[in-house]
C-alpha cells in the first residue's frame, strides 16, 4: 500500500509506558488526524515516523518499506512541519525555502524556489527576513520549505497553534487543498476537535495509551465508541435517567445517555421537561444557556440559543428533545 502503515506500535521511556499496540494506516492523498490530550504521545508518533525516535515496538512502513530497516532511504520522502516553524532567522524567505535544495543546480534551484513563492503567495516577501513576516506568512514559508524537496509523506505537529482563530481557519483549508492537490499522505497531530473534523479523512482518538477509535469524522461524531470519544468530538449533555425512561429507551448498565448540545432546543410550548434558566452568557449571535430541570434534582444541561429567543420569562421554558438524537454510548 502506498502511504503509511503503523502496526502494533508502542513506546516507553524508562519504566513509563507512553503508547501501546497502535495500528492505523494513511493512504496516498489522505489526511489522518491523531487526537488526544496533552502528554498522550501524539507527537511521539510523528517523531517515530520521522526517525527522530527509533526505540519503539512494532513496525512502521512508508510506501511498503519498513522504516526500521531503511530509515535513511525513507527520510527524503518525509516532510515534517513543526509547531514553532523551525525557520532559520539569519536567512531570508527565498533562502529558507531553497535551503534543502542543495542537490539541484543553481538554475533548477532558482526555478523551484520561484515556483513555490508563487504557489504559496510569497513573491512580494521573497527578500524579507523572517522576523519581518506575520505568523501566517512564516507558516507558509515553513510549509513551502518542506514541500520544496517533493516529499510523499507530510507530518504536521500542531501547525496552526500559533495563529489567531480567523487565520487558523483560513490556513487549514488552504493546507488541505495543498495536500490533496499534491497527493500526499499526511498525519496531523492536534488537540483541537473542530480542526480535526474539518480537515481529516480519518481520525484516531488516543485514550489510555492506545487508539480506541479510528474512523471517518462522520462515523466518530455520530457513533462514538464511548463517552470519552463523544466528549472529545463535540459538546454534549449527559441526560438524566428520567428523560431516557420517558422515551422508553433501553439502556444497559455500562452505557451513558448523551445528546449533542446543538440537538437540544428550548421552547415556550409545553413539553414533559420544564426548565429553569440557571446561567446565561451572551456570545454574540447566540446565548450560552445553562438550564436545570424543575422536577429533577441537581440535573442541568447546556445549550446555545439564538439571541432572538425571548428569555425574559425564565421559569416557563421547556426542553425539546427528539429521541433519535439521543446516543447511548459506553461509559468507559
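^ Assign residues to that structure.
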Amino acid at each position: 500500500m502506498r502511504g503509511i502503515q503503523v502496526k502494533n506500535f508502542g513506546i516507553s521511556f524508562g519504566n513509563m509506558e507512553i503508547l501501546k499496540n497502535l495500528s492505523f494506516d494513511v493512504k496516498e492523498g489522505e489526511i489522518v488526524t491523531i487526537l488526544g490530550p496533552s502528554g498522550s504521545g501524539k507527537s511521539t508518533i510523528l517523531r517515530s515516523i520521522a526517525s527522530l525516535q527509533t526505540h519503539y515496538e512494532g513496525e512502521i512502513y512508508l510506501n511498503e518499506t519498513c522504516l526500521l530497516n531503511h530509515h535513511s532511504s525513507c527520510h527524503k520522502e518525509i516532510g515534517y512541519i513543526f509547531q514553532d516553524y523551525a525557520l532559520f532567522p539569519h536567512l531570508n524567505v527565498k533562502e529558507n525555502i531553497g535551503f534543502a535544495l542543495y542537490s539541484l543546480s543553481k538554475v533548477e534551484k532558482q526555478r523551484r524556489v520561484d515556483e513555490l513563492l508563487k504557489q504559496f503567495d510569497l513573491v512580494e516577501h521573497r527578500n524579507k527576513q523572517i522576523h519581518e513576516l506575520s505568523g501566517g506568512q512564516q507558516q507558509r514559508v515553513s510549509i513551502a520549505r518542506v514541500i520544496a524537496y517533493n516529499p510523499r509523506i507530510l507530518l504536521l505537529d500542531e501547525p496552526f497553534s500559533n495563529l489567531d482563530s480567523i487565520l487558523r481557519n483560513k490556513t487549514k483549508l488552504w493546507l488541505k487543498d495543498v495536500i490533496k492537490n499534491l497527493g500526499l499522505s499526511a498525519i496531523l497531530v492536534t488537540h483541537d476537535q473542530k480542526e480535526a473534523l474539518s480537515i481529516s479523512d480519518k481520525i484516531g482518538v488516543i485514550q489510555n495509551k492506545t487508539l480506541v477509535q479510528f474512523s471517518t469524522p462522520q462515523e466518530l461524531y455520530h457513533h462514538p465508541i464511548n463517552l470519552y470519544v463523544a466528549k472529545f468530538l463535540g459538546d454534549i449533555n449527559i441526560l438524566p435517567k428520567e428523560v431516557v425512561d420517558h422515551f422508553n429507551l433501553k439502556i444497559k448498565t455500562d452505557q451513558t445517555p448523551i445528546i449533542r448540545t446543538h440537538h437540544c432546543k428550548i421552547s415556550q410550548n409545553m413539553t414533559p421537561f420544564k426548565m429553569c434558566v440557571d446561567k446565561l452568557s451572551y456570545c454574540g449571535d447566540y446565548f450560552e444557556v445553562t438550564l436545570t430541570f424543575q422536577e429533577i434534582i441537581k440535573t442541568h444541561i447546556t445549550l446555545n440559543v439564538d439571541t432572538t429567543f425571548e428569555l425574559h420569562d425564565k421559569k416557563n421554558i421547556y426542553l425539546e428533545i427528539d429521541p433519535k438524537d439521543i446516543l447511548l454510548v459506553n461509559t468507559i
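The two ends are 34 Å apart (CA to CA).
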